[in-house]
């Protein structure tokens, strides 16, 4: 009988410890899940914060560029058009002066013709800068061809351009972004990369239309903050985002740059 009682106590003790162990394990597991979940949520929040920060940077880059563009257009209009039209206006009033000699009238008229021709030329240049007419009339392919010709004419750089895509003129608004991206990339290759060869290729793939761009210039360190101060690359990123595409930029010192984006 005494042996049996001992046995029962042992069993109760074992059950008690087992329950306690289970309870402890359960608590540890609950705490573990709670803290790991908290950590995951915190990480997600940090990621979201970074994304928002990045979007803000892109947006401010777009706004700054817009303002700079407006300033440039205002300056062009002021210096190249307004000042000339002012003199044209003065000359036109002069024509009303009584007793002008024939020579004076001829001189004033020549002045007016000369200045209006210049103002017309300049207004055309300003308009072309805003929307390249070739792109508008003949589409992206013709626009890029003309861009390549302009760069080749500098004689310091050669451009290989290959296009395997038929661009729909209905999408010209979208294509203007692609044109501006290439314009910026090419300017950078010439200005910073000191490249002598640029290659551009358009191709159709499963991901849509893809543009491959590369140069053989001096390249740069993508992670160096010094190289993240300009607006050009930020604008490129926001244009690609606008096109709902993805962009990959690769570069290393002495290894040129290669850029791939879809649109
Ligand atoms: N093709 C390239 N070869 C070498 N360095 C480049 C090239 N493209 C960009 N970089 C480097 O990256 C930096 C950032 O380029 P980004 O176009 O954003 O600015 P930026 O050209 O300096 O100024 P912005 O475009 O605003 O006039 C450049 O200053 C340059 O150091
Ligand atoms: Mg630039």
Automatic annotation (TrEMBL):
Q: Which residue intervals define the domain Signal transduction histidine kinase subgroup 3 dimerisation and phosphoacceptor in the entry?
A: 69-134
Reaction catalysed by this enzyme: ATP + protein L-histidine = ADP + protein N-phospho-L-histidine
Q: What is this protein's name? A: histidine kinase
Q: Where is the Histidine kinase/HSP90-like ATPase domain?
A: 176-261
Q: Does the keyword Kinase apply?
A: yes
Q: Which key words are in the record?
A: ATP-binding, Kinase, Membrane, Nucleotide-binding, Phosphoprotein, Transferase, Transmembrane, Transmembrane helix, Two-component regulatory system
What SUPFAM superfamilies would the database entry show?
A: ATPase domain of HSP90 chaperone/DNA topoisomerase II/histidine kinase
Q: What class of enzyme is it?
A: transferase
Upper classification of the organism: Bacteria, Pseudomonadati, Bacteroidota, Flavobacteriia, Flavobacteriales
Report the EC code(s) recorded for this entry. Answer: 2.7.13.3
InterPro entries the UniProt entry points to: HATPase_C_sf, HATPase_dom, Sensor_HK_TwoCompSys, Sig_transdc_His_kin_sub3_dim/P
Show the CDD domains listed in the entry. Answer: HATPase_UhpB-NarQ-NarX-like
Q: Name one cellular component (GO) term.
A: membrane
Transmembrane segments annotated in the record for this chain: 14-35
Q: What does the record give under GO molecular function? A: ATP binding; phosphorelay sensor kinase activity; protein dimerization activity
């Amino acid at each position: 009988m005494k042996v049996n009682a001992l046995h029962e106590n042992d069993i109760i003790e074992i059950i008690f410890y087992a329950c306690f162990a289970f309870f402890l394990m359960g608590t540890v597991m609950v705490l573990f899940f709670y803290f790991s979940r908290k950590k995951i949520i915190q990480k997600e929040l940090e990621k979201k914060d970074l994304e928002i920060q990045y979007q803000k940077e892109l947006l401010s880059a777009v706004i700054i560029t817009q303002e700079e563009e407006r300033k440039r257009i205002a300056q062009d209009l002021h210096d190249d058009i307004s000042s000339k039209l002012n003199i044209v206006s003065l000359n036109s009033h002069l024509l009303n002066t009584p007793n002008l000699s024939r020579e004076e009238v001829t001189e004033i008229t020549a002045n007016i013709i000369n200045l209006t021709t210049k103002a017309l030329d300049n207004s055309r240049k300003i308009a072309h800068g805003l929307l390249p007419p070739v792109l508008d009339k003949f589409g992206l392919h013709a626009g890029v061809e003309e861009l390549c010709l302009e760069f080749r004419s500098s004689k310091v750089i050669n451009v290989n351009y290959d296009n395997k895509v038929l661009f729909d003129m209905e999408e010209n608004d979208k294509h203007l972004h692609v044109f501006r991206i290439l314009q910026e990339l090419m300017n950078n290759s010439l200005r910073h990369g000191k490249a002598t060869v640029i290659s551009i290729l358009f191709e159709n793939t499963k991901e849509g239309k893809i543009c491959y761009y590369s140069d053989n210039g001096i390249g740069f360190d993508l992670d160096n903050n010094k190289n993240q101060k300009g607006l050009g690359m930020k604008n490129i990123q926001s244009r690609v985002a606008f096109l709902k595409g993805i962009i990959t930029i690769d570069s290393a010192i002495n290894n040129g740059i290669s850029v791939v984006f879809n649109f």
